[in-house]
Amino acid sequence: MMVKQPRDSAEEFARRGDEVYERNIRPQVDTEENKGKFVLIDIETGQWEMDADEMAASNRMDERLPNAQVWMVRVGSRYVYRIGAGRSRRFV
Amino acid sequence: MITGMVNADREAILRLVLYDANGQPQEMDTIVDTGFDGKLTLPPDVVQQLGLPLKRQARAVLADGREIVTKIYEIKILWDGQPRLTSALETEATPLVGMSLMYGYELNLPILDGTEFTLRLIANLPPDVVQQLGLPLKRQARAVLADGREIVTKIYEVKILWDGQPRATSALETEAAPLVGMSLMYGYELNLPILDGTEFTLRLIANP
């Protein structure tokens, strides 16, 4: 099985991913109905998939772009995961 | 049903079977963490040893408010006796099992040293469908079928769009094709010409 390696450092990867999301995707998807959905973005091509089910979006992305460099966000939230209950999630 | 054990360090330990990239099983002790809203975390050495494929990266927030960028790998695990494809965050911590892996299960966790705890499936839809729709199980009830047989059916709360308006209603779980029944249509007039390719209408005649 081929193992993808990210070409950028984590912070650079996040910066590029956030930039694509904020500029091209968020204006289309940031609606009440989509709050909490997962958005997977190929930071190289800007192609993206959105789904309430993370694995479903992942499978579609794999079919489209097997070698995608994927940054994931959730609509309405700055982060995807909370590790430890330090902050309650609130989608805005 | 899945069982685990609370240890003397007050950790709820779940022994999981993880499969490596070649499909070889390997046991791993994980901690049940209801403060983690994802599925699974694994330390870097385990990720490397299993040869997991990197799928994506995402931001996570820690208990002290710090944010990290974390790598997400695809992994096959044994869950409740069934193989399940899921995802794992790479973190330096002890492996954690989070709320999204346990979704649709009831965690019964007596908090005392050396006690056994259980995870029991409460929703019978395929886990992906339950997760996708996120339907809460509300109650169960008896129903009678056309041939007189009785079944016990689970009832979920679901929001639908009805006549252009969102409506909270309930859905019975059955193996059949989805059906719309009289109680959903109550207060409407059904005008149904029975011919191939004809349109039929439901028109509001009274406020339910």
List descriptors.
heterodimer, A: 92 residues, alpha+beta, 3-stranded antiparallel sheet, 2 helices, 4 strands, 18% strand, globular, B: 208 residues, mainly beta, Cathepsin D, subunit A, domain 1, 2 domains, 6-stranded mixed barrel, 3 helices, 15 strands, 9% helix, elongated
Q: What is the element layout, followed by pairings?
A:
The complex is a heterodimer of chains A (92) and B (208).
Chain A: H1 10-29, E1 38-42, E2 48-51, H2 54-64, E3 70-74, E4 81-83
Antiparallel strand pairs in A: 1-2, 1-3
Chain B: E1 2-6, E2 12-19, E3 25-32, E4 40-42, H1 44-50, E5 54-62, E6 67-79, E7 82-90, E8 96-97, E9 105-108, E10 116-121, H2 127-133, E11 137-144, E12 150-162, E13 165-172, H3 182-185, E14 188-191, E15 201-204
Parallel strand pairs in B: 3-8, 4-7
Antiparallel strand pairs in B: 1-2, 1-10, 2-3, 2-6, 4-8, 5-6, 6-7, 9-10, 11-12, 12-13, 14-15
What is the compact description of this entry?
Chain A is α+β, with helices and mostly antiparallel strands. Chain A is 34% helix and 18% strand. With 208 residues, chain B is mainly beta.
Characterize the structure shown:
The complex is a heterodimer of chains A (92) and B (208). The mean pLDDT of chain A is 85. Chain A has a 3-stranded antiparallel beta sheet, with helices on both faces. Chain A has one domain (10-74). Chain A is an alpha+beta fold. In chain A, 34% of the residues lie in helices and 18% in strands. Chain A has helices at 10-29, 54-64, and strands at 38-42, 48-51, 70-74, 81-83. Chain A is globular and about 30 Å long. Chain B is mainly beta. Chain B folds into 2 domains: 2-116, Beta Barrel (Cathepsin D, subunit A, domain 1), CATH 2.40.70.10; 122-204, Beta Barrel (Cathepsin D, subunit A, domain 1). A 6-stranded mixed β-barrel of chain B has the order 2-3-8-4-7-6. Chain B is elongated and about 65 Å long. The two termini of chain B are 42 Å apart. At the A-B interface, helix 1, helix 2, strand 3 and strand 4 of A face strand 5, strand 6, strand 7 and helix 2 of B. Strand 4 (81-83) of chain A pairs parallel with strand 5 of chain B, so a sheet runs across the interface.
